[in-house]
C-alpha cells in the first residue's frame, strides 16, 4: 500500500467500509498483501475512534456566560431579577441560540441526530416561540415545542418519584428542623440564600443549584440528598435542575414571574403548610398540604404568598425539578449535554 494512496484516501465511512469489505474478500482469496492492508485499516480505525472520543469541545463561551447580556437590574414581566451571573433565568443574550445550536451539533456528532427533531426545531425557532407565546406561559430561556401544556400536573405524571418523596416526608422534615434552629442564632445562617420579594422574607437552602451539587449543604442534609439519587426523573445534570428547601415567612409575597423552560415539572413537597398560603399558576390557585406533593409547570406565570400571622410560622416546602413526562429519553440525554453546567 503506497503512501500516495493513503494520502488520497477520503477517510469517509463509506470508503472505510468498502476498503474493509475488499480486504476481507482478498483474505478469503489468500491475498497476503490484503491481510496487511486490513490490519493497518483496523489499527487506523481504532486510532480514529480514540481521537474522536477524547476530542475536547472548542473554547466557545459557556451557556451561562452568554445569558448575561441584558440589564439584570431592571424589571421584566414584573419580576425583580437577582443580578447573579450564574442564574440561568435572570440572564439573556442574543448569542444564546447560536451557542445552543452549536451544542446540539456537537451532541449529534458524538451520538446521533435520531430523536432530535423537536430540540432542533425549538433551537432554530426559539426567538419566534418565545416572542409569540401567550402571556400566561412564557419560558424565559428555552421552549421545547409540542409538549402538552397545563399549569398543574396530576400525581400520576411522575408517580414513582411523588410516592417516594411522600414516604420520606418525615425524614426531610426532620433535617429541615435541624437546619432551621440556626435561625435563632443569626439572621442568615451559612448555606441559606435570601431571595428578592416585595414584602416579607423568602429563603432557600439549595442541595442542587442549576445542575450543580452544593457539597456543604448536602452534608447537612445527608438523607435528603441520598433520596435525590433514588428519584427516577430528577433533573440533576443540566442548568434547569434544582433541589432546595424553600421557606416563606408570614407576610411574604413572591412577585409573579416565569420559569426558564417548559421541559421540567416543579415538585413541591409540603413540609409546613399553615393556613393563608397559596400557590397561583396560570391564574389557578392551589394550596399546599403537609406530606403531599404539588406538581406544576413553572414556565407559566406564577406567584406564591403567605398571608398568615407570625404565630402560624413559615411555609416550608422541599422543591425538586423533575422531567416533563413527555420529554423522551433521547431528548433528556441531549438536553443534559446542551445545557450542561459550564458549557
Automatic annotation (TrEMBL):
It is a single-pass type II membrane protein. SUPFAM superfamilies: Clavaminate synthase-like. This is Aspartate beta-hydroxylase domain-containing protein 2. It comes from Chrysochloris asiatica. InterPro entries: Asp/Arg/Pro-Hydrxlase (IPR007803), Asp/Asn_beta-hydroxylase (IPR051821), IPNS-like_sf (IPR027443). Pfam families: Asp_Arg_Hydrox. Residues 166-325 form the Aspartyl/asparaginy/proline hydroxylase domain. PANTHER family: ASPARTATE BETA-HYDROXYLASE DOMAIN-CONTAINING PROTEIN 2. GO terms for cellular component: membrane. Its main location: membrane. May function as 2-oxoglutarate-dependent dioxygenase. Belongs to the aspartyl/asparaginyl beta-hydroxylase family.
Amino acid at each position: 500500500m503506497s503512501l500516495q494512496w493513503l494520502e488520497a484516501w477520503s477517510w469517509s465511512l463509506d470508503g472505510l467500509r468498502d476498503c474493509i469489505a475488499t480486504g476481507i474478500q482478498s483474505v478469503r482469496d489468500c491475498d497476503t498483501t490484503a491481510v496487511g492492508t486490513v490490519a493497518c485499516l483496523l489499527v487506523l480505525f481504532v486510532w480514529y475512534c480514540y481521537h474522536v472520543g477524547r476530542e475536547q469541545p472548542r473554547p466557545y463561551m459557556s451557556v451561562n456566560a452568554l445569558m448575561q447580556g441584558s440589564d439584570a437590574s431592571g424589571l421584566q414581566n414584573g419580576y425583580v431579577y437577582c443580578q447573579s451571573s450564574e442564574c440561568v433565568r435572570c440572564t439573556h443574550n442574543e448569542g444564546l441560540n447560536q451557542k445552543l445550536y452549536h451544542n446540539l451539533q456537537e451532541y449529534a456528532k458524538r451520538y446521533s441526530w435520531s430523536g432530535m427533531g423537536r430540540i432542533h426545531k425549538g433551537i432554530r425557532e426559539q426567538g419566534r416561540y418565545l416572542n409569540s407565546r401567550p402571556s400566561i406561559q412564557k419560558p424565559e430561556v428555552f421552549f421545547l415545542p409540542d409538549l402538552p401544556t397545563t399549569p398543574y400536573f396530576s400525581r400520576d405524571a411522575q408517580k414513582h418519584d411523588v410516592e417516594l418523596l411522600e414516604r420520606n416526608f418525615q425524614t426531610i422534615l426532620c433535617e429541615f428542623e435541624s437546619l432551621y434552629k440556626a435561625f435563632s442564632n443569626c439572621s442568615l445562617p451559612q448555606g441559606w440564600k435570601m431571595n428578592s420579594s416585595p414584602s416579607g422574607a423568602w429563603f432557600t437552602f439549595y442541595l442542587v443549584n442549576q445542575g450543580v451539587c452544593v457539597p456543604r449543604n448536602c452534608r447537612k442534609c445527608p438523607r435528603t440528598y441520598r433520596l435525590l439519587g433514588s428519584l427516577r426523573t430528577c433533573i440533576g445534570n443540566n442548568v434547569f435542575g434544582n433541589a432546595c428547601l424553600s421557606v416563606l415567612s408570614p407576610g411574604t409575597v413572591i412577585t409573579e414571574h416565569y420559569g426558564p423552560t417548559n421541559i421540567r415539572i416543579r415538585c413541591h413537597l409540603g413540609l409546613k403548610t399553615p393556613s393563608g398560603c397559596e400557590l397561583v399558576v396560570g391564574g389557578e390557585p392551589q394550596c399546599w398540604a403537609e406530606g403531599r406533593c404539588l406538581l406544576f409547570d413553572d414556565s407559566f406565570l406564577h406567584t406564591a404568598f403567605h398571608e398568615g400571622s407570625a404565630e402560624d410560622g413559615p411555609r416550608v416546602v422541599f422543591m425538586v425539578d423533575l422531567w416533563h413526562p413527555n420529554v423522551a429519553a433521547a431528548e433528556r440525554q441531549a438536553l443534559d449535554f446542551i445545557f450542561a453546567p459550564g458549557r
